[in-house]
Amino acid sequence: MKANYFYNLLFLGFIVIFTSCKEDVKKESVNSSEELNYQSNIEAYFKSNTPSKVDLPYETEEEYQERMQWWKDAKYGMFIHWGLYSQLGGEYKGEVTPKIAEWIQNTLKIPAVEYKKLMETFNATKFSAEEWVSIAKAAGMKYIVITSKHHDGFALFDSKVSDYDVMNTPFGRDVIKELKDECHRQGLKFGLYYSHAIDWDHPQAYIGEGELQNRMNTVDFDPNDMDRSKYLKEKSFPQLKEILTNYGTIDILWFDMGKGLDNEEIREFVKITKELQPNIIISSRIGDEVAPTSLNKDMYFDFFTPSDNYSTGDQFEIPFEMAGTTNSSWGYRKDDKEWREPGFIINSLIASASRNGNYLLNVGPMANGLIPSEPVKNLKIAGEWLKKNGESVYNTTASPFPWNYNWGYVTQNENKMYLNVFNWPKSNRIELNGLLTKADKITALGSSDNLSFTQDGRFLSIDLSTVTKQDFATPIVVELKSAELNIDKKISQNIENDIRLDRITSQYMKDEKLSSWNFTVHTPGKFKIKIVSNEKGNHSKPDWTGADQKGSVQVAGKIIPVSLTRDTEIVNPTLFFYKEIGSNVGEIEFTKKGTYSLQLKGFEIGAGKWTKGLGLNRIELVQK
Ligand code: H79
Predict the structure, then answer these.
(1) Which listed residue, of 11, 85, 341, 508, carries a Cα 20 to 30 Å from 42's Cα?
(2) Mean pLDDT for the stretch of residues 311-335
(3) Which domain CATH number covers 224?
(4) What is the pLDDT of residues 161-205, one digit of tens each?
(5) 251 CB less than 6 Å from ligand 1?
(6) Would you say residue 9 lies in a domain?
(7) Is 185 a member of any domain?
(8) What whole-number percentage of the chain has pLDDT above 90?
(9) How far is the CA of 556 from the centre of ligand 1 (A)?
(10) Which of 507, 601, 617 lies closest to 35 in space, CA to CA?
């Protein structure tokens, strides 16, 4: 999937569209956390979706925020992929699929008539909605999203539109109804995934040409002889109406893989959805996310879905939701035992929360209805941590700082800031850089003992030596004198004298392949320069594009030629399958205090999993 893409581009899209009337439009800039006014851009976004075009009820920004509130507070949901493919567990007639298990029909080119025979044996004797919802609840999840129909076309609900549904299996129970009722009984919100564009059972489900044809069923059907409007009219629109009509309130509609649909069709999907469920929340994969600038004008969605299992520390224009797997597949895969550890899960969740995002973590139940025991165990352990420390996650808002910290992540709730320490520093101290609001009181979450701290100018330094370190992460609560934070967003050397230049704080000029930062130095000296970049691409064969380009670093009057080498490797849980690669590129001396600039030249930057260019994460200047 070429999806995703475009972290930066999302920003760029908004910046370009919404500032283009001003005369001072400069080059494209990636970050500009200081200048960007998120609120007004959201407003502009909604105003661009006027009723005249989409024929939707107009919604003000306040109404949007209100409708999204439960979702933003929830932070954590369970994704469930379950269907006929669950019986195969990634293997068909002795052949193991090299790709994600729910794609097996497509990847192994199984003829539809053969694949459909799986209906005859679908009998989930151990299925219990109560058990699934209890697992999600014990994990600390606040909502569930399940595949009402995945790409194979098989419906897990009672459909009058198509016989290819769960009612025509020996199981014969409406899974969607049972799960929905149970979710609402146990107080969880309930959403549906619906594969609106791809359908391997319908002969007319045309997506597009070239690469897009890999997503279609070309084993049984001839792509040259397809009329998508028939598929939409005969199956996709009417089934969408069924799931939005027959089950009471549906809280989320998780459209996926909408690339290939045109804007008129997308508008029709939105219209049906919103008319039947006015408060529903819609995923951005309803359309082609590769072209956000045009989508912003013509589309309507409520949250943005960045690349699966790939969180790069960016903060988006609208809230995002990172969808992730507990092993490497969405549908059950019997040979995949590489389960995500509780610490990884907690890390991904908090990394998302600290950047205005939710985490939708998947389980792939087996055909008998049981969720594999390993992820259940890991989810439960993470859930126990959340039970104790949930205050630092639920109902919070993003970090007020534009940069990231080595020790962990920041979230905020009114005048409280939560610092979740994942990497315990050897010095037993952590610091905040740029906080001008005064701290009143600092404690470890769950303890009333005051921690000692110093606050001097832009630096708040906290002594952790009396804190009992928790498993996985230890939240520290900073109570501030005011909920209106005053943050100095200029980059500065930190207390340990190092300088961290995150990609998200850079100014980026794409045409000139130039990333630049300004920062202040308070303690001069010699520094090692290290460039850290992320692997990307297909998770089964991560690609590191660092060696593809050459350039230079210009800093303090010195030009240092740069060709990146794979010097160090770090596992960063938020990237799951991908590593952070460190490249040592030389040294620099700052002889005086003051403001400096650093420019990275010659490198096209593409932070997304599928975007072209170097997956730049940050540059570290470490004092020798
Ligand atoms: O529902 C889950 C996946 O089945 C679907 N979205 C999540 C939430 C999905 N994830 N990744 N993809 C789809 C990427 C698909 C990439 C593709 Fe391919 C490349 C489709 C065709 C070529 C991977 C490789 C799947 C089949 C071959």
Answers:
(1) 508
(2) 90
(3) 3.20.20.80
(4) 999 999 999 999 999 999 999 999 999 999 999 999 999 999 999
(5) no
(6) no
(7) yes
(8) 76
(9) 46
(10) 507
Strand partners, 479: 416, 441
Give residue 38 CA to ligand 1 midpoint distance, Å.
31
Number of folded domains in the chain? 3
Q: Is 428 found in the same domain as 304?
A: no
- Measure 237 CA to ligand 1 centroid, in angstroms: 22
Cα(588)–Cα(82) distance, integer angstroms: 55
Separation of alpha carbons 402 and 443, rounded Å: 24
The finding on whether 254 has its CB within 6 A of some atom of ligand 1 is: no
Assess whether 545 and 508 both reside in one domain: yes
Same domain, 481 and 526: no
Check if 158 has its Cβ closer than 6 Å to any atom of ligand 1.
no
Q: Whose CA is nearest to atom 4 of ligand 1?
A: 102
**Whether residue 143 is found in the same domain as residue 285:** yes
pLDDT for 89 beyond 50: yes
Alpha-carbon distance of 457 to 436, in angstroms, equals 7
Segment 324-346 shows an average pLDDT of 96
Does residue 157 lie within any of the structural domains?
yes
For residues 110 and 167, state if they share a domain: yes
The CA 522 to ligand 1 mean position distance, Å, reads 49
Give the three-class secondary structure for 504. Answer: helix
Is the beta carbon of 330 within 6 A of some atom in ligand 1? yes
CA of 284 to the centre of ligand 1 (A): 16
Give the global pTM: 0.91
Domain containing 415 equals 408-488
Mean pLDDT of the region 206-231:
96
User: Does the beta carbon of 102 sit less than 6 angstroms from any atom of ligand 1?
Assistant: yes
In a domain, 27, yes or no: no
Beta strand 76-80 pairing with 143-149: parallel
